Amino acid sequence: MNTYDVCIVGAGVVGCAIAREMAGRSPEDPLRIVVVEQQEGAGEVTSRRNSGVLHSGVHERPFSLKERLAREGSALAVSYAIEKGIPLLRTGMVIAIAWEDIRRGLWREASTLQRLWFNAWRTKTRVKFMTPSGLRALEPRLQACCGLVIPSVSVIDPRAFVQSLKADSESSGADFAFNNRVIGITEDDAAYLVTTDRQKFRAACLINAAGLHADEVAALAPPHRKYTIRPLRGEYYELATPDKKRLVERLVYPALPPHATGKGIHFSPRPNGQLFVGPNEVAVEDKTDYTSRKTPPGVFVEALRKFVPELEERDLRWAYSGIRPRVMTGDGCKSDFIVSVEREDPPLINLVGIESPGLSAALALARHVGDLPCIRRRFRRTGWRPLSPGRYER
Predict the structure, then answer these.
(1) pLDDT at 97 over 70
(2) Distance in angstroms (rounded) separating the CA atoms of residues 275 and 269
(3) In terms of residue numbers, what domain contains 256?
(4) What is the 3-state secondary structure (H, E, C) of the chain?
(5) CATH number, residue 113
(6) Count of alpha carbons within 13 Å of 349, Cβ hemisphere only?
(7) Is residue 174 one of the residues assigned to a domain?
(8) Any idea what the Cα angle at residue 57 is, between residues 344 and 372, rounded to 5°?
(9) For residues 282, 286, 290 and 296, what is the CA-based torsion angle, rounded to 10 degrees?
(10) Residue 104 falls within a domain, yes or no?
(11) CB 268 within 8 A of CB 277
(12) Angle ∠(51,54,57) on CA atoms, nearest 5
């Protein structure tokens, strides 16, 4: 049996970020860390099946973990990407209201812009209000009556991001155990025994960052907390018509009412020059159901043609889908990030419902976990301090 200071379950972007943070905080006296993952590599599920957007946090509920960690984490991720040479598109985000919506009397979109503006003002996130002519100057093919532009929003290559975090973790001494599915967790002499379908690990601290399967892992570990993840599929189509692959150059999102559970189908450019539309929201029963009953492209065209009338169904080609680990509250709203210290000694921390903006928040979320009092008490290391990937002004 291999013995470690910390066992992290899950090698997605959050698990890799936590491994990097904790492995690098005290280089003079490093922790022994293992990341256990049931897939054959890092970031193979939710972490790479998304749009790569580094969100500003203005869409999230004020004072929530999602809002704060997305804002802090996206700035850290931009600095990290620049430092490491990770593909990054400094696109900015346009949140637009279509003329069609105003003509239909949907004035709630205007109140949404006001709410987002206030959120940005409160968090000192730079935004610009744009008139139709201002929007056309940015995006000549975009038809909208007004919108907000958040210049700081960028798009990162999520696969390269995860692989870089993994490499940093390994260079600081962390081990990765792939193709290991956790099937049992018990406590033994102030430590946790983690049993997989291949081997056993003993660790003085257990961090559950298992993403879509975080509820299952939480149920295995004493005190066997019950969480319920409701998998939600988001689908993407690619702009395949050659003369429309650069239909827009920026992220273009619709303004949605406050009760919306997502951010809406949007134009999603990538650092490699591809342009996608999506995601939608489709409830699924199976956490691996990426392709059954695909949503037809007409649904995406209907959502976005009001902004760009040139968009047609024949322009779209199915690309991929991802599944979000959503947790719903009792009132039917999506929950905040759950970072729950289930036990302080030995530390057991469950991270559940880390959906969008989880990619944006990953580096800040790792700092948040590293700063938990139970972690600091357990690992009294000389020079224990947060990692700094550099400085980036929003």
Answers:
(1) yes
(2) 4
(3) 93-151+230-326
(4) CEEEEEEEECCCHHHHHHHHHHHHCCCCCCCCEEEECCCCCCCCCCCCCCCCEECCCCCCCCCCHHHHHHHHHHHHHHHHHHHHCCCEECCCEEEEECHHHHHCCCCHHHHHHHHHHHHHHHCCCCCEEECHHHHHHHCCCCCCCEEEEECCCEEECHHHHHHHHHHHHHHCCCEEECCCCEEEEEECCCCEEEEECCCEEEEEEEEECCHHHHHHHHHHCCCCCCCCCEEEEEEEEEECCHHHCCCCCCEEEECCCCCCCCCCCEEEECCCCCEEEECCCEECCCCCCCCCCCCCHHHHHHHHCCCCCCCCHHHEEEEEEEEEEECECCCCCECCCEEEEEEECCEEEEEECCCCCHHHHHHHHHHHHHCCHHHHHHCCCCCCCCCCCCCCCC
(5) 3.30.9.10
(6) 27
(7) yes
(8) 15
(9) -40
(10) yes
(11) yes
(12) 120
Average pLDDT, the chain: 93
Q: How many domains does the chain have?
A: 2
- Where does the pLDDT of residue 107 fall: very low under 50, low under 70, confident under 90, or very high at 90 and above? low
Return the number of other C-beta atoms located less than 10 Å from residue 89's C-beta. Answer: 21
For residue 392, name the pLDDT band (cuts at 50, 70, 90). very low
Residues 106 and 131 in one domain: yes
Look at the block and give the residue holding tokens 């922790």.
Answer: 31
Distance between CA atoms of 117 and 35, rounded to whole angstroms?
Answer: 40
What pLDDT score was predicted for residue 386?
84
Bridge partners for 60 per DSSP? none
Identify whether 18 is part of a domain: yes
Q: Are 95 and 119 in contact (CB under 8 A)?
A: no
The CA distance from 228 to 30, in Å, is 35
Task: Give me the mean pLDDT over the 366-370 stretch.
Answer: 96
- Asked if residue 151 has pLDDT above 80, the reply is yes
Question: What six digits make up the tokens of 70?
Answer: 């997305």
Cβ atoms within 10 Å, residue 336: 17
Inform me whether the pLDDT recorded for 148 exceeds 80: yes
Q: From the CB of residue 264, how many other CB atoms can be counted at a distance below 10 Å?
A: 17
- The pLDDT of residue 394 is 37
In a domain, 393, yes or no: no
Confidence of residue 332 (pLDDT cuts 50, 70, 90): low
User: What integer pLDDT is reported at residue 204 of this predicted model?
Assistant: 96
Each residue's pLDDT tens digit, 252-275:
999 987 677 789 999 999 999 999
